[in-house]
Amino acid sequence: MGTIALLKKLFGLLSIYLNAIRSIELEVKHHEFPHPSGAANGAWRKLIGKSPTRENRINYWQQEVFAHLSGL
């Protein structure tokens, strides 16, 4: 199977998968977490109130996600 044929097959399978996921109706509301890009250090600093190191961003996410999940 050639590269183009393989890519077409993969995209077809991906499309089927995404349609199946979209068809699942969940009772849980989608929660939008703010997520500045990795390069947006000023936005991260403003959001988390401290230096936007990788560790601080992970700690921020952990706190936000756990706080959201505890409210479900």
What would you say about this model in short?
By secondary structure, this protein is an all-alpha fold.
Can you characterise this structure?
By secondary structure, this protein is an all-alpha fold. The protein has one domain. The chain is 64% helix and 0% strand. The longest helix has 21 residues, at 3-23. The model has no long low-confidence stretch (mean pLDDT 83).
Q: Residue share in helices?
A: 55-70%
* Number of individual domains: 1
Strand content: under 5%
Average pLDDT, all residues: 83
Counting DSSP E segments of at least 2 residues, the number of strands comes to 0
Shape: flat
Topology order in helix (H) and strand (E) letters: HHH
Q: How many helices?
A: 3
Helix/strand class: mainly alpha
**Radius of gyration from the CA trace?**
19 Å
Reported for the largest beta sheet, the result is: none
Contiguous low-pLDDT stretches (5 residues minimum) are none
Distance from first to last alpha carbon: 48 Å
Distinctive features:
single chain, about 70 residues, mainly alpha
Topology:
Blueprint: H1 3-23, H2 41-48, H3 54-70
